[in-house]
Amino acid sequence: xxxxxxLNIVSGPIIVAFFALAAALLIFLLARRPTRRWQVTSAxxxxxxxxxxxxxxxxxxxxxxxxxxISPTVYALLAATLAGVFVAVVNLWxxxxxxxxxxxxxxxxxxxxxxLGINAEFGLNHTVGSLFGVVSEAPIALPFAxxxxxxxxxxxxxxxxxxxxxxxxxQGSIGTQVIPNTISGFNSRPxxxxxxxxxxxxxxxxxxxxxxxxxxxGSPDTVYTAQVLDKIAARNNGLAPIVxxxxxxxxxxxxxxxxxxxxxxxxxxxxxxxxxxxxxANLNIIHDHKYWTIAGYSNGGACAISxxxxxxxxxxxxxxxxxxxxxxSENPRHVRSSIFNGDQAAYDAIKPxxxxxxxxYPDTFGMFTVGSNDAGYIPxxxxxxxxxxxxGMDAVYWESPNGGHVLPALTDGLNKGYELxxxxxxxxxxxx
Length: 432
Known about the structure:
This protein is of the alpha/beta class.
């Protein structure tokens, strides 16, 4: 089962095979005796698919229901999928039984192919498991189940004191761990864990901690973090933070709003107590909170800045990558009604901009990134960066060139963030 969930659906033979099969089926279904009746019928079927895609485009544009900008490629794939389905449907009339069987078979093929193509355009869900919000990576072996207190860091930044052994792996290791919900009771999926090369050798140094949260819907996927950090670690003697990609969602089809609520559970307590306690007990991390970072993408970005704003004694650094401006910002009226019983003041109190205004954040670093083409998110990210700077944070706002809301905005944001964070964490003398 795990092998199926781990199959790559963004590049490689699976998506190529589906596109080839869909193209062959469409050609077959269109290739009937070219009577005038069939020419008109097939043209109407194709046109119906295109028109329906245009109608969906108008609805999305008018309501903003999707929450993020949608590229023309997505609508083209949607139009092609719907046109294929309509062509298959019209093949059910005035046709032989075997053509009917092929037409019925073609419908799910067209739908799956369209889904794979649209998913590949977004680029975030690269496996079957991640597409359905299921963690598919195998459990990772933790080389430091318990950290002896004598294993204290040497004085001075790691980039000066750490000398990698000859047998250090060239790349880090990724996998999963179930983090007990001892205090929160929150039902999370297994967390993704990234251990950099320097963490995989005997007598490894204690390393900085990053807790990363992904978007919703989505899964606690380590792939993009590992891709970015492996390249940076290769230039810095294998040094990188240890990263927990924690699950702040639980059910991938609902948004717990980064909060403790009766409706969705105690996700705030899970991240800031259960995950933190587990990291201290199981990972070879530096205990000084100056070296701890809370990070997030999209939904996770809203959680990251919210948690730093509320718990500055735990988190000293934050990455807010294409983050929502505040929990529930895509549908604030519904959130205010369903979670806060219509109390606008109570809702405003949990917004990170207001929390940042209530205190100062000295010796705190904040990285706020967004795609330059992500018009729906740029204003909110700008406001958040400004609020962080006004609160005394060393805040940096940066736009990923030609980036939308998905890739490459995510990986660009991680790259830029770590570029600026590495010296602060003692992992490099300057930009890595």
